[in-house]
Amino acid sequence: MTRATMSQVSAWHAAAAATAGEAVAAADSEFTAVMGQVAQLVNSLLGEWQGAAGTAAEVRAVEQQLCANHIGAALVDIADAFAAAGTLERVCGEVEALEGEARAHGCRVGDDGVVTAARSGTGDLALDLIFQAGLDAEAKRMQARLIALLDCAGATDADAGARLTAAGVALAALEVEPAVGQLDSRVAAVLGGTALLPDEPSELCALWRSLTPADQDALFAFDPLLGARDGLPALARDHYNRLSLARLTAAARDRQRWLTDEHPDWSRGQQLPTTPHDWIRLHDWEAERQRARDLLTGYATVAAEVGPAEPNRLLLDLDGNGHAAIALGNPDAASNVATFVPGTGSALDEIDQGMNRVRNLLGAANRADASARTAVIAWYGYDAPPTLSDALGDRRARQGAVLLDAFESGLRATHPGPPARATVIGHSYGGTLIGFAAREPGLAADAVIFVGTPGVDASDVSELRLVGITPDRNTFHIFSTADLADPVPVLGRYLHGTNPVDREFLATVFTSSGGAVCLPVVCRMPFAVSAHGKYWEPGNPGLQVQGQIITGDYPR
C-alpha cells in the first residue's frame, strides 16, 4: 500500500479535483445529449436513403454512434476518478486537524506521520516517568489515527491516478482506432452466456473499474438496464440510465400506440363487449393502456427532474417497471449520503414531489455543516402501495426491503476513500419498508430516521440491524418523529406493531410540527391528514433535526 506523506497531503487541493469531476460530468451529459440529437437526425435521413450507398451510410452512422458512446464512457471514467480524488478533501481536513492537535500537545509530527511525544521535565524523576508514559501513550494514539489517514489518502490517490491514466489512454486510443478491439475475456464470457455479472455490489464495482470504455459499452449493449445494477459508480449509472430513459420512453409510447391500434373501436368507446369473457378482455386491455400511460407520465417526470434545467442531479436507477432514483449531488464524492424512501401512493410520476423534499433535506444538511459535501437521494425503487388499503399488509415492504438493502450496499461499495456517513429516511410506509431492510444481516447505514411511520413490525430498536453498529447502540443511531396531528402513526400501530415514537421502542425521538389547514369540523378533530406530508416544509423544526442527523451533528 502506498502511504501518503504529510507534505503531500498539505499540498493537495482535493476540492479542485471534485470541481473538475463535476465539470467533466456536466460535459459528458451535454455531449451525450447532443449525440442523441445527432443520432435522431441521422436516422430520419437514412430512412429515406436506399441502395448500396444508403447501406454504407447506415453502417458508418452506427460506427460513429458507437465511438461517441465510447467517448462518453471514457468521460464518465475520468469524472469518476476526479470525484474519487475529491473525497481526499475530507481526509486532508482530518489530517490537518490531527496534526494541530498533536502540536497542541507539544508533539512533533514527522513527514511520515510518526508522532514523537513531548518530554516531561518536572525535575522529579518519578513524576517524569509517570507523565512521560501518559504523553507517549497519547502520541501513539494520535499516530495510529494519523497513519490510518495517510494510508487511506495514499490508496485513494494511487487508485484515482491509475484510473485517470487508464481513462486517458482509452480516450487517446479511440482517436486512433474508434472501432471496438478485442474485448476483455470476462466481458466476452458474459456476452457469450458462459458467465454472469457479479451480484455482489463490491465485486461488480471492482470489475467495472477495471474495464475499458469499450468493454463497458459492450456490457450496456448486452444489458440496456445496466445502469440499474447496484455496484456501478454513480456517474456511470447516470450515464447509462440517461441513455435508457429515451429507449424506455419510446418503448412505452410504442406499447400505448399498439394497444390503441389493436382495438380502435374500444379506444373510441364504441362496439364494447357484450359477453362476460370479452368484458374481461376489455378490462385487461384498459389496464395495459393505463400502465403504458403511467409509465410515459413517469418517464416524462424523471426527464424533467434530470434535464438541463436541473444541474448536479444523477439518475441512479431506472427500469421498465416504473422505478427510479435521483440523487441531488454525487454520492460517490460526498461525506454524507442520505436516502429518502417515500410511502403510500408514491408512483414514479410523483418523484418530483420527492425531489422537493430531497432539496429541503439537502438545504437542512448544508445549514448543519456547510463545510461537508452532502448528497441526498429520492429512492423510488420499489412498488409503493397505491392506496391505503394496499398499505395494510407488509408484502410490499418485504419486497422493497431487498431492493433497498442492495441499493445501500451498492452506495457503500462504490464510495472511494473513507466511507460516507449514510442515513436512510423513511416516510410513512417507507419507514415500514426500512424496518424490514434493517434485519439480519443488516442495512448498510449509520443512521435511520422514521418519519410519520405507521410501525416497522418490530417491538423495539434491538430487533433492527445496522452494518457496523452493535444492537446495544441502536438507540443512538435510530431516530423517529411524528407530528401530533398526523393520524398515520397513531392508527398504524394496530397494523404494523409498536410505533417508533413510542417510549418502549427506544428510538431517539425528536419533535416535528407543521401548520395544518384549519377548516370547519376539521379543526375540531384531533388529527389533520395534511400534517402527514409537512415534515419537510421550511419552518418545521423536524427538518432542521433531520439535517443535523444527516451530517452527524445532532446534539445529544
What does this structure look like?
By secondary structure, the chain is an alpha/beta fold. The protein folds into three domains: 6-179, Ferritin (Up-down Bundle); 224-311, no CATH class; 323-551, Rossmann fold (3-Layer(aba) Sandwich), CATH 3.40.50.1820. It has helices at residues 6-11, 14-46, 51-86, 88-104, 125-176, 185-191, 201-209, 213-222, 234-262, 264-267, 276-305, 351-368, 395-414, 429-437, 487-496, 541-551, and strands at 108-109, 115-116, 313-318, 324-328, 336-341, 374-380, 421-427, 447-451, 478-481, 508-509. Strands 3-4-6-5-7-8-9-10 form an eight-stranded mixed β-sheet, sandwiched between helices. Strands 1-2 form a two-stranded antiparallel sheet. The longest helix is centred in the N-terminal third of the chain and has 52 residues, at 125-176. It is flat, with a radius of gyration of 27 Å.
